[in-house]
Amino acid sequence: MTEEAAPIEHFRALDAIRVCRGAFVKRVPGIEVTDGKAEVLRRLDAAHRAARNSLGMATWPLLTSHQVHGNRVAVIDGKMANDQHFAGYDGFITNQRQTAIGVHVADCCAVYIIDPNTPAIGLVHSGKKGTELEIAGKAIEAMQQRFGSEPSDIVVQLSPCIRPPHYEIDFAAGIREQCRSAGVKQIHDPGTCTACDLGSYYSYRAEKGKTGRMLALLGLL
User: Fold this and answer.
1) H or E element that contains 30
2) Among 1, 143, 158, 159, which is 20 to 30 Å from 26 by CA?
3) Ordered domains of the chain (ranges, CATH)
């Protein structure tokens, strides 16, 4: 799988932060995605690894989770030697350098949370249910408690996600409000709807569940 087969979306706000690397791996051309999620992720693995390589994360362990649309956030405060897959979590916070955290989405929002001063980072999966359970706010609170992060120093970046009229609620607005309520002042949202551009993104709603997954990646240098 070539790098060209794994289109990567960069966010200006993340690229401006010198202590981390973060990006969003979009729809991968030529991959059959009508089978079950586990099989689709297996097929996407080579393209996602190529994306990690292009971001300079090839040798970093990747931490992912079997996401359950909840609000549990794993705290990673020790060095990981190898890739790890966690059960029952929908996000991570960490202060460990050269450790990649990853979230898979296909309409839900990947929320990148960066404290450039401590430094520390978080990445969470927030769709309708996760937003109702305030996972982004809980991740910010956990970064305060575990790493001493100041919300006013934190930068938040939202990924593309489904939005009205293709979905009945605007959970991106709820995520932004959670972050503001937590004291975050720098919140960036591209306003992109995944269901509006199936050439670039996977959409669980638009493709009636027969779809792939984008991969959000974030790591401290």
Assistant:
1) none
2) 143
3) 3-220 (3.60.140.10)
